[in-house]
């Protein structure tokens, strides 16, 4: 049997590190659970993908976790055959046997976990927990999860250091030894002045009822605004109807696809505004361009000619508009909310502005349970580093989590959010002191919030320390000590990557695809320029289309995505005539804090007024 098991592993592309020991254990697994070698290897492939193991090497160290995976599969199979039967796992037995010894759990006094156990124990005693980490007696159980057994913690995946050596973040290169450090807690010496720019979306359940008129007006306004900005720059003439035969033409319109499916060279259409062409569409040919990048919904300017009136042949494509770097002077006044009136009234004369922050995006718990272990680890790390500003982006109660989808949670989604997520955040802030602040942004994947985009902020009115927790809309823009930060939790980068049609320069210059995708957001002045939206995005233009607008380039743009994490400096503006100033923006994809049954990544950033003076690390948890 061992030879058959080895052959199945090799057939699936795996190699065995300690062959004799691994095959001996795998043979025992097959005998104990009546598995064929092919079934065993299939289960290993599922375990391998869920744990996101880096190498296609079967290691003896992974056999214990694999055994737990096989046990879970057996339990699920029995439950499917006999739905009314309750199966006790080894974890349940361990929890019961060790119930009397729970009081001996090691707790570091004064930490968020200590406060959690003391301040909120009575709340847990009154209700059955959602995820089994609290026994019926109210004491914390000794559940050992795959996430808790991981060996590598806080590993630097990527680092950008543009600061002098003496100004780099203290200890950012010592993450691997963080667990052994004895760090003295020092409260942040000041609190950042936070000002929210977008707050007109009020909390409350909404249904998608936007009319065709709402969509038409929103798209028409985008085309008109782009055309007006291009003309106002003095570099382009007034746009005309692109469907009229002409030897020289400049038109502004939106990229569309001729039919269903993705864009290709033969299916690109340009839809101009009603003002200039009555909303007519014309085929657009880009064969003469050496490089371009287009997607449905993108508003562009086209120089070219239309010899027949049926096809616009482009000689130049303008995919961005002149961006104003000043304050939002031409928009209607937005309600600016001061989160700390005393601090807001105080001006901090820092030149340049310096902020230190940690950025993390959900899910905040692994797919195995609802223990929120990655969130706890993150807050522990932020406590050790005395971080002044923590930005948390949803989903928090992920609607795609297996237990949420199956409906096996006994509490309401709001209760899980309050008792798990907000409780940890409150304990963290209570420990750090009044100068620490947390910004929370929802996601359309949050099961406890409005399924609509743009999305209102979480309602956090009942919280005792609401002045330290900022609830932002999705998307949203705020300022931290005059550093403008834009955030959007809808995965626009992934959506654009699936719809973009691009051609690289013939000179062989490498194209940074991640930077290009992020630059589309800024050059289009929209947090979600893709139209039609991707499947599953509840885009509703009837709510507040202004919420999608980016009137000026932010200093930091946070775009959580399932694609690979990155920190990129994107440059915008600048013309051959030198009439427009170059503007740089730091675009950040922190990745996901939890991935499957394992940990993901987050970003630690020190920003001193310019992308040329920053220190950023992407850290694996």
Secondary structure blueprint with pairings:
Blueprint: H1 2-11, E1 15-16, H2 19-33, H3 37-51, E2 57-58, H4 63-81, H5 90-97, H6 112-119, H7 121-125, E3 155-161, E4 194-196, H8 212-232, E5 246-257, E6 268-272, H9 274-277, E7 281-285, E8 292-294, E9 299-306, E10 311-318, E11 337-338, H10 341-345, E12 355-361, H11 373-385, E13 389-393, H12 402-406, H13 413-432, E14 437-441, E15 469-471, E16 476-480, E17 483-487, H14 492-499, E18 501-503, H15 513-523, E19 556-558, E20 566-572, E21 583-589, E22 594-595, E23 598-599, E24 601-610, E25 613-620
Parallel strand pairs: 1-2, 7-10, 12-13, 13-14, 14-15, 17-19, 19-21
Antiparallel strand pairs: 3-25, 4-11, 4-16, 5-6, 5-9, 6-7, 8-18, 9-10, 12-24, 16-17, 20-21, 22-23, 24-25
Summarize the structure.
The chain is an alpha/beta fold.
The biggest sheet, with number of strands, parallel, antiparallel or mixed sense and barrel status, is: 7 strands, mixed
Judging by the overall fold, what is the CATH architecture of one domain? Beta Barrel
CATH class of one domain: Mainly Beta
Q: Structural class, from helix and strand content?
A: alpha/beta
Shape: globular
Unreliably modeled segments? 88-141, 166-186, 325-350, 575-580
N-C termini distance: 39 Å
Provide the spatial order of strands within the biggest beta sheet: 3-25-24-12-13-14-15
Question: What's the CATH topology label of one domain?
Answer: OB fold (Dihydrolipoamide Acetyltransferase, E2P)
Counting H and I runs of at least 4 residues, what is the number of helices? 15
Q: What is the assembly state of the chains in this entry?
A: single chain
**What is the CATH H-level superfamily of one domain?**
Nucleic acid-binding proteins
